[in-house]
Structures are given as C-alpha cells and as structure tokens.
Write a sequence for this structure.
C-alpha cells in the first residue's frame, strides 16, 4: 500500500492540508487564545470586584456592630446615671435631715446614719464601676459656662461671688465617656 497520494492532493478521498489550511488553523487557535485570555481577564476583574465588595461589607458590618454596641452602652450608662442621681438625692436628703435635727431620738439618728452610710457605700461603688468603664464626671462648679458641656437651666445673679458667665450651681452632674459627652451638666449660670 505505500503512499496513496494522488496528483489532485487527495488521500482516501480527503484533501491534504496545505500551507493555507495550516495558517487558517493557527489563526483560529490564536483567536481562540485571545478570546479565552480576554474572558480570563474579565473573570479576574469580576473576582477582584467581588473580593473588594466582600471586604467593604465586612468593614461596614464591623462598623455597624461597633455603633450598636456603643449605642447600647450609652443607653445602659444613662440608666445607671439615673440611679446615681437618685443615690445623690437620697444622700442630700439624709444629710439635710441630719443637719436639721428632724430625725428624732438618738436611736433614730443611729439608724438614719447607718442608712446614709449604706447609701454612701452604694453610691461610691456605682461611681467606681462607672470610672472603670471610662465614665468621668464633668467638673462644672465655678468653671466658665461651656454650652458643649453644660445645659443652662437657670440664670442667677452674680451676687454669690461667682463671676458672670460662670457656673454658680450644679443642678445635675454631667459625665464624659472617654472624650465624648455622655450627659451635659445641668447648671445655674451667674449673670
């Protein structure tokens, strides 16, 4: 059997690939490589965008989680500050009653003093807990009025020796949480 080529370029009825057919095949392969390279680049860019979107989502979720924790913390601290205010009013009342001598016999004075000591202890414990959490009271009395830190509830005459524009009295103590205002001090301002 040997070589079955004929003069017209056919073997067993199939055409023999000549140089033109090989060129078409190379060009087709190059076009296919270019198409696949373009598709691979497009897929890579989509992957990079998806990875960036995922990272942005993670950061946003972390920020939202931190904001929710901070908001909840501030709300809980506001509740605790209400308890501190109540303890301070109870102490002021107990001290006022003891000074006025309205408590009664000596036996009653001892009981009232013990109750006042218990309130004082609870007050100190709550303030210690707040301090460990980064809550600090605002020192307002005698300081210049600052609308960022103080909420003026009344203007009084400067006759008490306080210079005009300063805090003459503190109605409700204000607090800072770290470097941020947690609650402004409610004050009377000398005029």
């Amino acid at each position: 059997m040997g070589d079955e080529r004929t003069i017209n370029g056919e073997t067993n009825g199939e055409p023999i690939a000549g140089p033109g057919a090989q060129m078409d095949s190379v060009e087709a392969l190059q076009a296919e490589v270019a198409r696949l390279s373009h598709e691979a680049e497009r897929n890579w860019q989509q992957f990079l965008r998806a990875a960036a979107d995922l990272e942005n989502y993670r950061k946003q979720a972390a920020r939202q989680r931190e904001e929710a924790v901070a908001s909840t913390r501030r709300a809980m601290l506001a509740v605790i500050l209400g308890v501190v205010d109540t303890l301070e009013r109870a102490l002021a009342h107990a001290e006022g009653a003891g000074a006025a001598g309205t408590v009664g016999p000596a036996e009653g004075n001892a009981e009232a003093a013990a109750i006042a000591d218990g309130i004082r202890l609870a007050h100190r414990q709550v303030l210690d807990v707040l301090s460990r959490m980064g809550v600090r009271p605002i020192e307002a009395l005698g300081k210049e009025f600052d609308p960022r830190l103080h909420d003026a509830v009344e203007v009084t005459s400067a006759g008490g020796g306080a210079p005009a524009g300063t805090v003459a009295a503190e109605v409700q103590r204000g607090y800072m949480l770290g470097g941020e205002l947690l609650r402004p001090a409610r004050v009377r301002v000398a005029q």
